[in-house]
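Sample A.
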Amino acid sequence: QVRLVESGGGLVQPGGSLRLSCAASGMIISIAAMGWYRQAPGKQREVVADISSGGRTNYADSVKGRFTISRDSAKNTVYLQMNSLEPEDAAVYYCNYRHWWGQGTQVTVSS
């Protein structure tokens, strides 16, 4: 049974940083394509970043240069480093593997 558990969300001021974590169990992240998505109130869920089994990364245009997706095979964990956060980045962030989703972690960007 695959389980994805996100953590690391919180309240941050504009320009600040957060690192989200997605701890995976029941699967091996180093051979999996995984992604981070986000959903703001009243908006559709959108992909933020993804990483292929080979380590290739892709980013939404809105976060390029500010966010970095990475993984730690020893910890079986995927990360999303978010820098220069903007109010528009506020959302619930979800980790995804195939049809499995985590419970989400809230990111609030406000002064």
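Sample B, a different protein:
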Amino acid sequence: QVQLVESGGGLVQAGGSLRLSCAASGRTFSNYAMGWFRQAPGKEREFVAAIRGSGDSIYYTDSVKGRFTISRDNAKNTVYLQMNSLKPEDTAVYYCASSCPGFKYYTNYAKSREYDYWGQGTQVTVSS
């Protein structure tokens, strides 16, 4: 059974940093793209970042470019999201997700329905 377990969320002041981790088990980690999504209160879940299984391709949503960095360590079955220069509008529950088999990465990296396993979420709160 595939499991994704996030950690690293918390409360931080604007301008601060957090590093989220997502530990995966139950499938060959390097075979699957991984994504980070977030959901703020009263809003729909939105794409944040994605990384291909090999780590050789990365995408970000425009609002986090230059501030967030996604990375993965396939030896540790873990994907990370380093978040710097945090803003109050980054406040949300952050989820990691593993792509579906046959995932067409370059066209579907931002589509939540193309990810079949999700973590439980970790709260990130940025105070002004």
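Observation for Sample B: The two ends are 40 Å apart (CA to CA).
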